[in-house]
Amino acid sequence: MSGPRQQTVLAPRDGSLGALLRVSDDRLAPGQAYGAHEHAAVDVVAVVLAGSLRHRWGEGALLGAGDVAVLRAGTGLVHDEAAGDDGARVLQCYLRPADPAAPPGHEVHRAVAGPVDLARPDATLWVGQGLPGVPVDVPAGVLLVAGGQTEVVHHLGGSVVPAEPVTFLLWQLETGRPAWAEE
After folding, report:
1. Where residue 181 falls among pLDDT bands split at 50, 70, 90?
2. Domains located in the chain, CATH noted
3. Pick from 29, 33, 42, 112: CA 20 to 30 A from residue 51's CA?
């Protein structure tokens, strides 16, 4: 079996989006896993769009559609994620770490609708759902609209009317360097 189908939808190489380094739209077949892999000095925010995903690290966690997992790799860890029997579609958002010297950690926010507390001053995430033809008031920022495909737009704030069922991810980002990077 080959690995998950991954499509990078955002990867600014110039640091213009502050802490946000990359966003990948990943699709996993039922039971498919990424394989054990290492992370260090990165925060990974995984938004489950469809299906289910089991995170294998520490105590582990089973995630369903609408859940948001925040993995802080800190000083380093090895983990894996595997789709449930229903497969999975996940937006994986990679951020510069809030604290690269911190011990690794993992937290899950269940059935998110609205802001997600990432416990960091330089990046805020807002998640919402949209139905065809129904306006949704979305804050200003870098907007990912995940329907059949994932589109990225700079959104000035205000109403968005999707043409299909979608999940909105809105990133509000400070573009300066963190204090630890200035030292």
Report:
1. low
2. 5-182 (2.60.120.10)
3. 42
